[in-house]
Amino acid sequence: MTLPHLELGVSRRVLGAGVTGTLLLAVGGVGVGALPRHKDAVAALLGLQSLHRTSAGRTVALVLVVAGVLLLSAAWWRVGQLLPLLTPRSVLLIAGLWSLPLLLAPPMFSRDVYAY
Fold it and tell me: What is the largest CA-CA distance in the chain?
């Protein structure tokens, strides 16, 4: 049996950076993301209402989003450096793993999704 990080061809550090980056994006998105006007269901479910309702919370959320973008970008940069050594399957698995936290996040920086 091989360890998943060895199977994918990247280190745990790179995988962890990508997951952490998307988790920061998802949590920060509750504060700066586009939640429905009258429903804070996501924030309430996660206990993060103050990130969306207060000015200080929105500032913290914005810092989390920026840190998440930087961390995720650095992780993708490293994957790009390793690309000649990776299989297409590995890259798809990495992209899928790093996308999972964003499935629970609200839309970022736009309310357009609620217009349709």
Answer: 49
